[in-house]
Design brief:
- The complex is a heterodimer of chains A (116) and B (107).
- With 116 residues, chain A is an all-beta fold.
- Chain A contains no helices and eleven strands.
- In chain A, 0% of the residues lie in helices and 54% in strands.
- The mean pLDDT of chain A is 97.
- Chain B has no helices and eleven strands.
- Chain B is globular and about 35 Å long.
- Classes of the chains: A mainly beta (116), B mainly beta (107).
- The interface between A and B is medium-sized, with 19 and 23 residues.
Chain lengths: 116, 107
Protein backbone atom coordinates (compact mmCIF):
# COMPACT_ATOMS: atom_id res chain seq x y z
CA UNK A 1 0.00 0.00 0.00
CA UNK A 2 1.46 3.31 -1.10
CA UNK A 3 1.59 6.00 1.57
CA UNK A 4 2.56 9.66 1.33
CA UNK A 5 3.57 11.85 4.25
CA UNK A 6 4.14 15.60 4.17
CA UNK A 7 6.68 17.21 6.48
CA UNK A 8 7.95 20.71 7.05
CA UNK A 9 7.44 23.86 9.11
CA UNK A 10 3.89 24.73 10.07
CA UNK A 11 4.66 28.43 10.35
CA UNK A 12 6.44 30.57 7.78
CA UNK A 13 7.09 34.31 7.93
CA UNK A 14 5.85 36.60 5.15
CA UNK A 15 8.33 37.03 2.26
CA UNK A 16 10.15 33.83 3.21
CA UNK A 17 10.18 30.49 1.38
CA UNK A 18 7.81 27.67 2.25
CA UNK A 19 9.52 24.28 2.07
CA UNK A 20 7.73 20.95 2.31
CA UNK A 21 8.82 17.39 1.64
CA UNK A 22 6.66 14.41 0.76
CA UNK A 23 8.01 10.97 1.63
CA UNK A 24 6.64 8.07 -0.38
CA UNK A 25 6.55 4.61 1.17
CA UNK A 26 5.19 1.27 -0.03
CA UNK A 27 6.16 1.98 -3.62
CA UNK A 28 8.81 3.55 -5.80
CA UNK A 29 8.74 7.20 -6.74
CA UNK A 30 10.44 6.24 -10.00
CA UNK A 31 7.17 6.05 -11.85
CA UNK A 32 4.12 8.25 -12.33
CA UNK A 33 3.65 11.94 -11.56
CA UNK A 34 3.92 13.50 -8.12
CA UNK A 35 1.90 16.58 -7.29
CA UNK A 36 1.31 19.26 -4.73
CA UNK A 37 -2.21 20.55 -4.12
CA UNK A 38 -3.30 23.10 -1.55
CA UNK A 39 -6.52 24.09 0.17
CA UNK A 40 -6.92 27.41 2.02
CA UNK A 41 -8.98 27.06 5.20
CA UNK A 42 -12.65 26.61 4.32
CA UNK A 43 -12.00 26.84 0.59
CA UNK A 44 -11.52 24.60 -2.44
CA UNK A 45 -8.59 22.74 -3.94
CA UNK A 46 -5.84 24.31 -6.04
CA UNK A 47 -3.34 22.28 -8.03
CA UNK A 48 0.18 23.68 -7.60
CA UNK A 49 2.19 21.50 -9.95
CA UNK A 50 3.73 18.11 -10.60
CA UNK A 51 7.06 16.48 -11.16
CA UNK A 52 7.75 13.31 -13.09
CA UNK A 53 10.35 11.02 -11.56
CA UNK A 54 12.73 11.95 -14.36
CA UNK A 55 12.61 15.53 -13.13
CA UNK A 56 10.34 17.14 -15.69
CA UNK A 57 7.88 19.55 -14.14
CA UNK A 58 4.67 21.41 -14.85
CA UNK A 59 3.40 24.25 -12.68
CA UNK A 60 0.19 26.22 -12.28
CA UNK A 61 0.83 29.49 -14.15
CA UNK A 62 -0.69 31.41 -11.26
CA UNK A 63 2.21 30.29 -9.05
CA UNK A 64 4.89 29.48 -11.60
CA UNK A 65 7.14 32.43 -10.81
CA UNK A 66 7.38 31.36 -7.16
CA UNK A 67 7.23 27.54 -7.28
CA UNK A 68 9.86 24.85 -7.59
CA UNK A 69 9.20 21.14 -7.22
CA UNK A 70 12.15 18.76 -7.01
CA UNK A 71 12.56 15.00 -6.62
CA UNK A 72 15.10 12.84 -4.82
CA UNK A 73 14.64 9.30 -6.08
CA UNK A 74 17.33 7.95 -3.74
CA UNK A 75 15.21 9.00 -0.76
CA UNK A 76 11.82 8.37 -2.42
CA UNK A 77 10.91 11.99 -1.72
CA UNK A 78 9.80 15.06 -3.58
CA UNK A 79 9.73 18.61 -2.33
CA UNK A 80 7.86 21.89 -2.76
CA UNK A 81 9.44 25.31 -2.52
CA UNK A 82 7.20 28.39 -2.64
CA UNK A 83 8.99 31.71 -2.38
CA UNK A 84 7.89 35.16 -1.25
CA UNK A 85 4.90 33.84 0.66
CA UNK A 86 2.05 36.00 1.92
CA UNK A 87 -0.97 35.33 4.08
CA UNK A 88 -2.78 34.19 0.92
CA UNK A 89 -0.50 31.15 0.86
CA UNK A 90 -1.86 29.91 4.20
CA UNK A 91 -3.38 26.53 3.42
CA UNK A 92 -3.35 22.81 3.98
CA UNK A 93 -0.78 21.44 1.55
CA UNK A 94 -1.28 17.95 0.17
CA UNK A 95 1.10 15.79 -1.79
CA UNK A 96 -0.50 13.26 -4.11
CA UNK A 97 0.34 10.69 -6.75
CA UNK A 98 -1.13 11.18 -10.21
CA UNK A 99 -1.35 8.00 -12.21
CA UNK A 100 -2.76 8.73 -15.59
CA UNK A 101 -5.44 9.88 -15.19
CA UNK A 102 -6.26 10.65 -11.57
CA UNK A 103 -4.92 11.34 -8.08
CA UNK A 104 -5.07 7.96 -6.37
CA UNK A 105 -2.96 8.37 -3.24
CA UNK A 106 -2.81 11.49 -1.07
CA UNK A 107 -0.91 12.51 2.00
CA UNK A 108 -2.87 13.48 5.09
CA UNK A 109 -2.10 17.15 4.49
CA UNK A 110 -0.15 19.67 6.51
CA UNK A 111 -1.30 23.13 7.53
CA UNK A 112 1.13 25.90 6.73
CA UNK A 113 0.37 29.29 8.22
CA UNK A 114 2.06 32.42 6.94
CA UNK A 115 2.39 34.91 9.76
CA UNK A 116 5.01 37.03 11.44
CA UNK B 1 -7.57 28.17 -17.34
CA UNK B 2 -10.50 25.77 -17.61
CA UNK B 3 -13.21 26.86 -15.17
CA UNK B 4 -15.14 24.06 -13.52
CA UNK B 5 -18.54 25.15 -12.23
CA UNK B 6 -20.29 22.82 -9.81
CA UNK B 7 -23.94 23.05 -8.90
CA UNK B 8 -25.31 23.27 -6.33
CA UNK B 9 -22.69 24.56 -3.88
CA UNK B 10 -24.52 22.78 -1.08
CA UNK B 11 -27.50 20.53 -0.63
CA UNK B 12 -29.46 18.86 2.13
CA UNK B 13 -31.14 15.51 1.51
CA UNK B 14 -32.65 12.64 3.47
CA UNK B 15 -31.12 9.22 3.91
CA UNK B 16 -32.13 7.12 0.93
CA UNK B 17 -32.60 10.09 -1.40
CA UNK B 18 -31.08 10.33 -4.85
CA UNK B 19 -28.51 13.12 -4.99
CA UNK B 20 -27.25 14.70 -8.21
CA UNK B 21 -24.37 17.16 -8.63
CA UNK B 22 -23.45 18.77 -11.92
CA UNK B 23 -20.10 20.03 -13.13
CA UNK B 24 -19.73 22.22 -16.19
CA UNK B 25 -16.40 22.91 -17.87
CA UNK B 26 -15.71 26.21 -19.61
CA UNK B 27 -14.59 24.28 -22.68
CA UNK B 28 -14.56 20.73 -24.02
CA UNK B 29 -12.52 18.43 -21.79
CA UNK B 30 -13.57 15.17 -23.48
CA UNK B 31 -14.09 12.73 -20.59
CA UNK B 32 -11.02 13.85 -18.64
CA UNK B 33 -13.00 14.42 -15.47
CA UNK B 34 -12.69 12.91 -12.00
CA UNK B 35 -14.83 13.11 -8.87
CA UNK B 36 -13.46 13.16 -5.32
CA UNK B 37 -15.05 12.98 -1.89
CA UNK B 38 -13.55 14.97 0.97
CA UNK B 39 -14.61 14.52 4.57
CA UNK B 40 -13.72 17.17 7.17
CA UNK B 41 -10.06 17.14 8.12
CA UNK B 42 -9.23 14.46 5.56
CA UNK B 43 -7.61 14.31 2.17
CA UNK B 44 -9.82 13.92 -0.89
CA UNK B 45 -10.63 10.39 -1.99
CA UNK B 46 -11.09 9.34 -5.61
CA UNK B 47 -14.57 8.01 -6.41
CA UNK B 48 -14.99 8.28 -10.18
CA UNK B 49 -12.34 8.63 -12.89
CA UNK B 50 -12.60 9.39 -16.59
CA UNK B 51 -16.13 10.71 -16.01
CA UNK B 52 -17.86 7.39 -15.46
CA UNK B 53 -15.49 4.74 -14.12
CA UNK B 54 -15.97 3.65 -10.52
CA UNK B 55 -12.75 3.40 -8.55
CA UNK B 56 -12.10 -0.04 -7.07
CA UNK B 57 -13.70 -0.46 -3.65
CA UNK B 58 -16.10 2.47 -4.03
CA UNK B 59 -19.76 1.57 -3.40
CA UNK B 60 -21.91 1.18 -6.49
CA UNK B 61 -24.39 3.82 -5.29
CA UNK B 62 -21.90 6.36 -6.65
CA UNK B 63 -21.85 6.98 -10.39
CA UNK B 64 -20.79 9.53 -12.95
CA UNK B 65 -21.68 10.41 -16.50
CA UNK B 66 -21.09 13.01 -19.15
CA UNK B 67 -18.60 14.12 -21.75
CA UNK B 68 -17.46 17.33 -23.36
CA UNK B 69 -18.51 20.16 -21.06
CA UNK B 70 -21.34 18.73 -18.97
CA UNK B 71 -20.94 16.08 -16.30
CA UNK B 72 -23.14 14.58 -13.60
CA UNK B 73 -22.33 12.81 -10.35
CA UNK B 74 -25.04 10.77 -8.65
CA UNK B 75 -25.53 9.06 -5.32
CA UNK B 76 -28.51 6.75 -5.87
CA UNK B 77 -29.33 6.28 -2.19
CA UNK B 78 -27.72 8.74 0.22
CA UNK B 79 -26.17 7.18 3.30
CA UNK B 80 -25.08 8.92 6.53
CA UNK B 81 -21.43 8.19 5.74
CA UNK B 82 -21.73 10.13 2.45
CA UNK B 83 -21.74 13.44 4.31
CA UNK B 84 -18.82 15.23 2.69
CA UNK B 85 -17.82 17.79 0.11
CA UNK B 86 -17.56 16.53 -3.45
CA UNK B 87 -15.22 17.98 -6.07
CA UNK B 88 -14.91 17.51 -9.80
CA UNK B 89 -11.47 17.87 -11.39
CA UNK B 90 -10.35 18.15 -15.02
CA UNK B 91 -6.99 17.00 -16.28
CA UNK B 92 -7.35 17.71 -19.99
CA UNK B 93 -5.58 21.04 -19.75
CA UNK B 94 -2.87 22.42 -17.50
CA UNK B 95 -3.43 23.88 -15.03
CA UNK B 96 -5.52 21.01 -13.75
CA UNK B 97 -8.49 22.56 -12.04
CA UNK B 98 -11.15 21.62 -9.52
CA UNK B 99 -14.72 22.68 -9.13
CA UNK B 100 -15.55 24.80 -6.10
CA UNK B 101 -17.09 21.84 -4.30
CA UNK B 102 -20.57 20.69 -3.29
CA UNK B 103 -21.24 20.18 0.39
CA UNK B 104 -23.72 17.37 1.03
CA UNK B 105 -25.60 17.29 4.32
CA UNK B 106 -28.31 15.11 5.82
CA UNK B 107 -31.73 16.68 6.26
Amino acid sequence: QVQLQESGPGLVKPSETLSLTCTVSGGSISRYYWSWIRQPPGKGLEWIGYIFYSGSTNYNPSLKSRVTISVDTSKNQFSLYLSSVTAADTAVYYCARFVPNYFDYWGQGTLVTVSS
Amino acid sequence: DIQMTQSPSSLSASVGDRVTITCQASQDINNYLNWYQQKPGKAPKLLIYDASNLETGVPSRFSGSGSGTDFTFTITSLQPEDIATYYCQQYDYVPWTFGQGTKVEIK
